[in-house]
Amino acid sequence: MAIFDGLRSLSLGLMTMSDVDSGDTATVSMPVRWVSSDATDLELPSYATPGSAGMDLRACLSQDERPWSLAPGERKAVPTGLAIAVPPNYEAQIRPRSGLALRDGVTCLNTPGTIDSDYRGEIRVILANLGQDVFTINHGDRIAQLVLSPIVQAVLVPVDELDETSRGSGGFGSTGVE
After folding, report:
1. Mean pLDDT, to the nearest integer, of 52-76?
2. How far apart are CA 24 and CA 42, in angstroms?
3. DSSP string of 102-169?
4. What is the CATH number assigned to the segment(s) 27-150?
5. Tens-place pLDDT, residues 126-149
6. Interatomic CA distance for residues 132 and 144, integer angstroms
7. Mean per-residue pLDDT for 51-55?
């Protein structure tokens, strides 16, 4: 606890540790716009609960293509009808919905998918069906989550050698499972 107490004033960019303790939620404005005429009946992405980290993204399917089918092993880029202007020094991450993954074996590929702050096109979600049954995507279905996250850009410094660590170059599985 003493370590945490010493970090109370540590700035997290948007808030301090004391803000986290008090339950305040940091917010930042992010412009959005619908880019599809098929989105007129959809709601903007929203947080399902006050403690949700991600906003639900919905499928935006054209009238003549509803519904979509996703066969086992198949993947598709599903349109959301939405474009956003991610603030500088942030990224928007596209993540799977846990219920779809567990119940249906449907997940997002390239996870988390990154939407950079200079991208202004439509958000499309790459869904893959890892399940055994055909999965139906209906217009308006919640298909993924969007999480806004601060970023830091690295300045690469060429060196002749890297510092030594106890792990060294041990890669996949080198730290065990227990």
Report:
1. 97
2. 29
3. HHH-EEESSSSEEE-TT--S--EEEEEE-SSS-EEE-TT-EEEEEEEEE---------SSPPP-SSTT
4. 2.70.40.10
5. 999 999 999 999 999 999 999 999
6. 20
7. 95
